[in-house]
Structure formats: structure tokens, C-alpha cells
């Protein structure tokens, strides 16, 4: 990875059959790769073992000794090495998928003092309710949420051939990625200068 790029992890949150998330995630990853500020890795939660039952200890205090399943090892390593995240999420019942909540809850320090941006999709609200809930959760984990996200209302009619029909979408993505790159650099420098006081 070049010195002027940041390790970006794009998380595809939905594991539902017939989901649209991989389409959005692939497009966003393409935008991030052309942006030039990131080394991009896409994580699809449908490919990860994510049990709903959690160990008694908190990952905040257990650290490296936290007993995660072997099938989660790649996810944990990828989150740990990331400088920034983009979460691609649908909206289920005015919130985000259980798969994403479980993936978040199995970790703690991996999110700390790192920026997170959101790309959502759904019906009329475009997944915005899911993002509002995620901002609260990730703030609790000491992540820094990015203001300018992307939302795709009525995605089932707003996309064609793997791309959004709105010609402004790449510009919105660039704004998100510009802010994410700025925060990734600032927070990485801060983490290197001094441990985060969590």
C-alpha cells in the first residue's frame, strides 16, 4: 500500500436471500478504487461465520484473548488492519440487519478511532433509518461517523446494469470518499502519535 492511500474496508451487511447489497457494494468499491485514496477490500458478511450467541466476556476488555470462532478470523484481521470503513446496508423494519449488529458486537477495538461512512438503500427512505441507528452504535464504540453518506431510495427502480441511474451519484460518492480519506489520514496520524484514551 502506498503512503498516500488508506486501507478501506467496504462491508456488505445484508445476508438475505436475493439481496441487492453486493451490487451496491461493488459499485461503491469501484468508486473508491478510482478515487485514488484507498486500498479497497470488500467484506461480504454472507461469507462470514457470525453466531448470535456471544461469550460472557466483553471484547472491549478481553482484547486479543476474546474467543471468536475460527470462521471469523479473516473478518477480525481485516477490521483490525483497516484505516476506514464504508458500511453498505439495507433497512429492515426501520433499522439495519441483525448480521451487521452481530458482526459489530463481536468486535470493539477494531472500530476505535477510525472513520465510518454509510451507503444505504431501501424503499422511500433509502435506508436512512438504518444509518441513524448505526451512527449511535458506532459512536459508542468510539468510531467517527462521516456526515455525508449516500442513500438510494427505491433502489429497485433507481439502478440499472449494476449502476445508479442518477448521474449525480458518482459526485456524491466522491464527496463521501474525500471526507473519509481526510478522516482516515487524520485519525491514523493521531493513533500513531498517542494511544486513544478509550
Topology:
Blueprint: E1 6-12, H1 21-35, E2 38-44, H2 59-62, H3 73-81, E3 84-90, H4 98-105, E4 115-121, H5 128-140, E5 144-145, E6 150-152, H6 155-158, E7 159-160, E8 163-164, H7 169-193
Parallel strand pairs: 1-2, 1-3, 3-4, 4-5, 4-6
Antiparallel strand pairs: 7-8
Commentary on this structure:
It comes from Streptomyces phaeochromogenes. By secondary structure, this protein is of the alpha/beta class. Helices cover 39% and strands 19% of the residues. It has 7 helices and 8 strands, in the order E-H-E-H-H-E-H-E-H-E-E-H-E-E-H. It has helices at 21-35, 59-62, 73-81, 98-105, 128-140, 155-158, 169-193; strands at residues 6-12, 38-44, 84-90, 115-121, 144-145, 150-152, 159-160, 163-164. Strands 1, 2, 3, 4, 5 and 6 form a 6-stranded parallel β-sheet that branches. Helix 1 (21-35) packs across helix 7. The protein is globular and about 45 Å long. It starts with 5 loop residues before the first strand and ends in a 5-residue tail after the last helix. The mean pLDDT is 96.
Please report the number of helical segments.
7
What series of H and E elements makes up the topology? EHEHHEHEHEEHEEH
On the 0 to 100 scale, the average pLDDT is 96
Distance between the termini: 28 Å
> What is the helical fraction, as a range of percent?
25-40%
Beta-sheet strand percentage?
15-25%
- Counting copies of identical and different chains, the oligomeric state is single chain
The number of strands is 8
Question: Low-confidence runs (pLDDT<50, min 5 residues)?
Answer: none
Helices and strands: which structural class? alpha/beta
Give Rg in angstroms. Answer: 16 Å
Largest sheet: 6 strands, parallel
Shape: globular
Protein name: NAD(P)H-dependent oxidoreductase
Pfam family, one: FMN_red
Domain NADPH-dependent FMN reductase-like: 7-155
Organism: Streptomyces phaeochromogenes
Amino acid at each position: 500500500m502506498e503512503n498516500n492511500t488508506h486501507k478501506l474496508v467496504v462491508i456488505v451487511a445484508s445476508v438475505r436471500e436475493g439481496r441487492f447489497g453486493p451490487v451496491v457494494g461493488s459499485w461503491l468499491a469501484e468508486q473508491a478504487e478510482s478515487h485514488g485514496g484507498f486500498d479497497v477490500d470488500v467484506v461480504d458478511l454472507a461469507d462470514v461465520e457470525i453466531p448470535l450467541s456471544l461469550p460472557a466476556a466483553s471484547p472491549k476488555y478481553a482484547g486479543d484473548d476474546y474467543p471468536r470462532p475460527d470462521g471469523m478470523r479473516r473478518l477480525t484481521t481485516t477490521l483490525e488492519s483497516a484505516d476506514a470503513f464504508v458500511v453498505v446496508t439495507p433497512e429492515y423494519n426501520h433499522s439495519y440487519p441483525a448480521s451487521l449488529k452481530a458482526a459489530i458486537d463481536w468486535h470493539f477495538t477494531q472500530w476505535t478511532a477510525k472513520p465510518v461512512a454509510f451507503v444505504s438503500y431501501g424503499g422511500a427512505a433509502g435506508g436512512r433509518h438504518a444509518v441513524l441507528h448505526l451512527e449511535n452504535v458506532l459512536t459508542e464504540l468510539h468510531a467517527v461517523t462521516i456526515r455525508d453518506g449516500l442513500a438510494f431510495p427505491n433502489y429497485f427502480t433507481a439502478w440499472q446494469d449494476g449502476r445508479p441511474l442518477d448521474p449525480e451519484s458518482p459526485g456524491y460518492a466522491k464527496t463521501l470518499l474525500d471526507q473519509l480519506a481526510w478522516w482516515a489520514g487524520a485519525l491514523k496520524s493521531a493513533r500513531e502519535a498517542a494511544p486513544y484514551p478509550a
